[in-house]
Design goal:
about 80% helix, 12 helices, mainly alpha, about 350 residues
Length: about 350
């Protein structure tokens, strides 16, 4: 019992710290008044945010509303499911007619999806991602403190990392720095792509699958929101991952409102809702002083943190395997070309 008591006290302390950080992250995500302030400072930001809302809210979700409230009820009225005044002698003929009606109704609805929703979804996805980058740039410039954000991140990240963490090195200038930046972007895309597959796969786990899926989605959306700010601040990828995984409770809380807004809807409606809300959370992350809040909490705990949680371990392993395979493939191609030359 004496040996168990310190463990229980340590566990209780860790749970309390994680809960406080989670609440801080949740509160930061809900500070949507920052969006109003940034849009007030930047007219370009206001226009882009309004265009994003118009495309994804009014056109995309509006089309879903028209389909469910107008098109489908009209088709059910023109091509009904059943007839109320059917005699026993006409039941066989009426049954075949109702099957034909059902087939025609489903076919017309599918045509509506093929020729309207799917092209609109693709158009919205491409254009929205372009707008998200512009929104983050306009919001970042509207903050008016680019250098302060970089210094704030670096100083507080150094204070919160453990002795086992690698000290980040500065990117070399010129072509070498450009190549390193491109490599980091490609690696980041691979990392997040594999992590997305991991999130998708956890949804099929029995019993606990939904809960695990919710947590992983929260981390994924939180990383997406802060990645725009870190890209503009030119924070190295290894430092981003170290900071994110060392403060996993905060980012789980930050991503929770994003996931709660879409978790119980159908996939298409979830996409439309997230396409509206995502730029708002990106701007909230841009204006957030997450590093300062986390550093303040750590000072209260006298430097004793929760420890690093390897959130991206599986995705990181797969990404490194892909990079190794690609390098092996390139080397084999070079050898084949050398042999041909000889």
């Amino acid at each position: 019992m004496e040996t168990a008591n310190p463990l229980i006290r340590e566990l209780t302390t860790k749970v309390k710290q994680a809960s406080l950080l989670w609440l801080e992250g949740f509160r930061e995500a809900c500070c949507l008044h920052r969006v109003v302030i940034l849009c007030y400072r930047s007219r370009k930001l206001l226009i882009r945010t309004g265009q994003c809302f118009l495309l994804n809210g009014f056109i995309f979700l509006g089309s879903m509303f028209v389909l469910n409230s107008v098109v489908i009820p009209t088709l059910q009225w023109i091509l009904p499911d059943r007839h109320s005044d059917i005699s026993s002698q006409e039941s066989l003929t009426s049954g075949s007619i109702l099957k034909l009606y059902s087939f025609l109704r489903l076919g017309l609805i599918q045509l509506f999806y093929v020729f309207w929703f799917y092209p609109l979804y693709l158009f919205s996805f491409i254009l929205s991602n372009i707008w998200y980058n512009e929104i983050s740039k306009y919001g970042f410039s509207a903050m008016g403190k680019n250098e302060q954000n970089i210094l704030e991140f670096s100083s507080q990240n150094e204070a919160t990392t453990t002795s086992e963490s690698k000290v980040p090195t500065e990117k070399p200038a010129g072509l070498g720095g450009v190549m390193i930046g491109i490599g980091e972007q490609v690696y980041s895309i691979l990392l997040l792509s594999f992590f997305f597959l991991e999130v998708y796969a956890t949804g099929f786990i029995p019993f606990m699958g939904k809960a695990v899926n919710f947590i992983l989605l929260s981390w994924m959306y939180a990383y997406y929101c802060f990645e725009y700010k870190w890209n503009l601040s030119e924070v190295a990828l290894d430092r981003r991952l170290d900071f994110f995984e060392s403060n996993w409770a905060f980012f789980a809380g930050f991503g929770s409102p994003c996931v709660l807004a879409i978790f119980f809807f159908s996939p298409l409606i979830s996409y439309g809702v997230m396409a509206i809300l995502f730029p708002l959370f990106v701007l909230t992350a841009t204006g957030s002083r997450a590093e300062q809040l986390i550093f303040t909490q750590r000072r209260k705990w006298k430097g004793v943190g929760l420890g690093r949680l390897p959130i991206f371990y599986a995705a990181d392993t797969l990404s490194w395997m892909m990079r190794i395979l690609s390098l092996v493939h390139l080397e084999s191609q070079e050898q084949m070309q050398d042999n041909k030359a000889l």
